[in-house]
Design goal:
The protein is about 5% helix and about 65% strand. The protein has about 190 residues and is mainly beta. The chain has a 15-stranded antiparallel sheet that branches. It is globular, with a radius of gyration of 21 Å.
Length: about 190
């Protein structure tokens, strides 16, 4: 067909567990996956893992280095760890990207984070700014509003800067001043924590 004459190909897969498509040529790629009931498959290949039916994953990469992707899932769980109503998006290029991850509830063992969000912005593959927030619905209010920046100066030299932030645990609020953590080589240096 005309698509094949232009170097495009379209691969599709349907199974009891998911439907997927892969469209691309030498410079543009698009992947789409939507799950059905995966419990039987996951009990065999990844025991203790649950992915809700209707979870979708989409990703694309274009000839100019543009990237985009998304994950939507009503629930993803592994053992006692659980994420409800996950929405993750990424866009940009391989050099500069913007990502958001939002969830109604994240449970990590005995810790539950309600209404959590992480926003990250990658610049020049070396510097990432981030904002992390959650607001717990429990009687003893717990929340976080944390901002920072991580910079990779080299593979062995990484700087982390926590900008003025707040953390509330069981109603007790902590203010985090500007703090710098650096890892030059094997050493770790902490300033103002």
């Amino acid at each position: 067909n005309a698509d094949n004459e232009k170097g495009w190909y379209n691969l599709g897969m349907d199974s009891d567990f998911a439907t997927a498509s892969f469209v691309g040529n030498r410079s543009d790629l698009r992947l789409s996956l939507s799950t059905f009931d995966t419990r039987d498959l996951l009990s065999f290949v990844a025991p203790g893992t649950y992915i809700e039916s209707g979870t979708s994953i989409n990703a694309s990469l274009d000839s100019l280095g543009g990237i985009s992707g998304s994950i939507l899932s009503g629930r993803f769980a592994k053992g006692k760890n659980n994420i409800k109503n996950l929405q993750a998006d990424i866009s940009g290029t391989l050099e500069n990207a913007y990502a958001t991850i939002i969830s109604d509830e994240v449970t990590l063992g005995s810790i539950t984070l309600d209404n959590s969000s992480l926003v990250a912005n990658l610049k020049d593959r070396k510097c990432m700014t981030f904002d992390f927030n959650f607001d717990d619905k429990a009687e003893k209010k717990s929340s976080a509003d944390i901002h920072g920046q991580a910079t990779m100066l080299s593979k062995q030299n990484i700087n982390l800067e926590i900008r003025p932030s707040t953390l509330t645990i069981s109603g007790d609020e902590w203010t985090i001043p500007l703090c710098r953590i650096s890892k030059p080589g094997d050493d770790i240096s902490i300033d103002s924590l």
